[in-house]
Design a protein that fits this description.
The protein has about 325 residues and is α/β, with parallel strands linked by helices. The chain has a single domain, classed as Rossmann fold, CATH 3.40.50. It has 12 helices and 7 strands. The protein has a 5-stranded parallel beta sheet, with helices on both faces. A two-stranded antiparallel ribbon has the order 6-7. Helix 1 runs antiparallel to helix 2, helix 1 crosses helix 3 and helix 2 crosses helix 10. It is globular and about 55 Å long.
Length: about 325
């Protein structure tokens, strides 16, 4: 527990659970609990998905859920769908609309095998996802959707995660003006969170290369009260949530692709755009990359977490 009564250890376990499940959805078609050493036949024949933003999504979602369990969450970088899907599975929200997503080995298999698969789950957030009102294939609309959902609903708390590449779009920038128009007691509270991981699909982001002072001045100019948090520090994130006001804006910093291998074949992965999609694209055919994938997966100690998860349910 920290000073506000939040169970930090539970948040850490949730994050590790969802990080592992995000990786597993992208890579695995079998051996989901790593009961045996990873084999090429355990890896999907075609690897699709986006890992880079998943660690930040999982940390934002876990911290928010600990304080605002009834929140509405809007995901701007919808390509980080494995993370959103992992959290919906963890909370049982997915099971409510998809009975096959059970909290056991069969449900785990169902979730991973059907990710980014024909007639299964899409690679991006979509309207078929429980609670999704902002489609994830085109960036820029999340903040406008959040303020729209809050209109005339003063009881609502809506957290919206915006990618730093997404904030470069004209729609996202224009939507920052809504704070001056709609942050009133007649409407619900909207908490924008900028996920500042520094990179988009193939290059650095503008705001990832801006000075902190420049970014803070821009957000203050739109009427926000911004605060920067280290997304890897739960106590720091919780402190920011404890001190919210109607114009709060959180800038969450995490390394791009946090947790994945540091590099492969001389290419930097963690903290670089190379982790945006599939960090180990040859995991099925290259023994070295397969070993790296196994070490990465085992670092989360998922088998113990899943046993606790299934038992508690």
């Amino acid at each position: 527990m920290n000073g506000s009564g939040i169970d930090v250890s539970r948040i850490k376990k949730r994050i590790a659970f969802c990080d592992y499940l995000s990786v597993a959805q992208i890579f695995l078609q079998d051996n989901f609990l790593l009961d045996t050493p990873l084999d090429p036949t355990d890896v999907k024949p075609r690897l699709l998905g986006h890992w880079g933003s998943c660690p930040g999504i999982n940390r934002a979602y876990a911290n928010l859920k600990a304080v605002f369990p009834e929140m509405q969450f809007i995901l701007g970088p919808g390509h980080g769908f494995p993370a959103l899907q992992a959290n919906l599975y963890y909370d049982g929200d997915l099971h409510e609309v998809c009975p096959e997503a059970t909290p056991d080995k069969r449900g785990l298999e169902f979730l991973c095998r059907r990710f980014s698969w024909p007639y299964g789950f899409p690679s991006h957030a979509s309207p078929m996802t429980p609670g999704v009102i902002s489609e994830g294939g085109e960036l820029g609309y999340a903040l406008a959707a959040a303020y729209g959902a809050a209109l005339g609903k003063p009881e609502k708390f809506i957290a919206v995660l915006i990618g730093d590449g997404e904030l470069e779009t004209a729609t996202a920038l224009a939507s920052l003006n809504l704070n001056k128009l709609l942050a009133t007691s007649d409407n619900g509270r909207v908490l924008p969170i900028l996920h500042l991981n520094g990179y988009k699909i193939s290059a650095p982001t503008i705001y990832g290369r801006s000075s902190e002072r420049e970014l803070m001045q821009m957000l203050r100019g739109f009427g926000f009260d911004p605060v920067v948090v280290n997304g890897l520090d739960i106590d720091e994130f919780q402190s920011a949530l404890k001190n919210l006001n109607p114009h709060s804006f959180i800038v969450m910093k995490t390394p791009k692709g946090y947790g994945c291998p540091k590099e492969v074949d001389g290419v930097k992965l963690e903290g670089n755009y190379a982790s945006h999609q599939v960090p180990l694209p040859k995991a099925k055919t290259d023994r070295h990359q397969l070993e790296m994938l196994e070490n990465w997966l085992r670092s989360y100690h998922f088998k113990e977490l899943f046993h606790e998860f299934a038992h508690n349910d």
